[in-house]
Design a protein that fits this description.
6-stranded mixed sheet; 4-stranded parallel sheet; 14 helices; 14 strands; 34% helix; 17% strand
């Protein structure tokens, strides 16, 4: 994906599921009008989930996820099935693709149950409809059996492709595009100061994704973003005649920015904004308060949504563990996860500390929060933790009083 493309994390995720050789990859090619997925009559051609960007108007940017067959076999097949099911945690809409010649089978019905448990809107696609006629009565029986609308399609002849897109538009969750960054916090012509330290972890020649997205959100709402560094914040504040509506900082500069920002100007961080946009702000704040309950010997999971090369002063692997040890004065153990993997044994942890999730979609972050919550394991994100440890959490969340905490699920 090019640097100018919409990030995958803010696209609607459409998971394509079904048995092997049901035509999932062919359907993706037809929906995207590109030969982007390998198609073969050999069962099991798709092994790992494959992500493909697409635009579906009026939804906008989407990503299609091609998964391995849910009837895969053997030891490797079981691993592929697990990876396919893991995709459910990030799926906004599911398409269940079935070969019209075999109809809806037990594996399909089992998958539908999983859709319902995870509250995922879904659509049944009877593919390869050019190879077999199906009566209206049979179609109604399938609708009743699956509790879903059914679309007859043929990826090879493009029959039903537009209908699938129409149905996707109908069933998209209505709150999907209501996740908030600053749109409800600022008004037209408000000044917003963005403090963006440039250190060795900053990508050469550009800003990190959270900073880019907040700037765009300010511009979309006709606010006026002013970008500065932590060592030029005072000069920036002194050079403007209008009081800023909000100061937003990188979490690692929280203490310095807190000292330089007058108390009558609201202050928060990029990471806290993403805590609200991607997850459950109230739950993550509760996770910060649980830090006071940590004991000697407790194990803490530091979880990141992306993979990157850890540097000498890495925030997740070095700085946050040191902050927690200093704050609690306890002998703590730390484990780490990154990328698509989270944890299979969450009960072993006394606390989960998660990154800002800028590379993850809201569905996936909420699933991680829910997993922790269901096992009574507190979870907090980097920005909220840092604000808590620095003693400025209360100030950093004042801006959200009366605003939408975006904790709907």
């Amino acid at each position: 994906m090019s640097l100018n493309s919409t990030p995958k994390s803010v696209r609607t995720h459409i998971g394509i599921f079904g048995k092997r050789n049901s035509g999932k990859s062919s359907l993706i090619n037809a929906l995207s009008n590109q030969d982007i997925s390998i198609v073969s009559d050999v069962k099991g051609t798709t092994t790992d989930p494959v992500f493909r960007p697409i635009e579906i108007l009026p939804i906008g940017p989407c990503v299609l996820i091609d998964t391995a067959g849910i009837d895969d076999c053997g030891e490797l097949g079981e691993l592929r099935i697990k990876k396919s099911l893991d995709v459910l945690d990030k799926t906004d809409i599911a398409l269940l693709v079935s070969d019209v010649n075999s109809g809806i089978l037990k594996e399909d019905l089992d998958l539908i149950k999983k859709f319902k448990v995870k509250n995922i809107p879904y659509l049944i696609v009877l593919n390869k409809s050019d190879t077999k006629k199906i009566s209206t009565r049979q179609l109604e029986e399938i609708k009743e059996k699956t509790s879903s609308n059914v679309v007859l399609s043929s990826a090879s002849t493009n029959v039903g492709i537009d209908k699938i897109k129409e149905e996707i538009i109908k069933i998209i969750p209505r709150n999907k595009n209501e996740s908030l960054l600053v749109s409800d916090l600022v008004e037209e012509n408000d000044l917003v100061i963005l403090v963006t330290p440039i250190d060795k972890s900053a990508p050469k020649g550009r800003l990190i994704l959270p900073q880019q997205q907040v700037i765009r959100d300010c511009l979309d709402n006709n606010a006026i973003p002013i970008v500065t560094k932590e060592n030029t914040l005072r000069e920036t504040l002194n050079s403007i005649s209008k009081k800023p509506k909000l100061v937003i900082t990188d979490s690692q500069a929280f203490s310095e920015v807190d000292k330089e920002t007058p108390k009558d100007i609201p202050l928060t961080s990029f990471s806290i904004l993403f805590a609200r946009q991607k997850g459950d702000l109230n739950e993550l704040i509760d996770g910060a308060n649980a830090i006071n309950n940590l004991k000697d010997g407790d194990t803490i999971l530091i979880a990141e949504g992306c993979t990157h090369h850890a540097q000498d002063d890495d925030i997740g692997r070095i700085k946050i563990p040191n902050m927690l040890k200093k704050k609690t004065e306890k002998d703590l153990n730390f484990e780490f996860s990154s990328g698509v993997s989270f944890t299979e044994d969450i009960n072993k942890y006394s606390l989960v500390v998660h990154c800002g999730a800028c590379m993850m979609n809201r569905k996936e972050m909420l699933s991680r929060i829910e997993k922790a919550k269901s096992h009574n394991v507190p979870i907090v994100n980097y920005g909220i933790l840092i604000a808590f440890v620095k003693g400025i959490l209360e100030r950093s969340i004042e801006i959200f009083e009366g605003a939408n905490t975006n904790d709907d699920k």
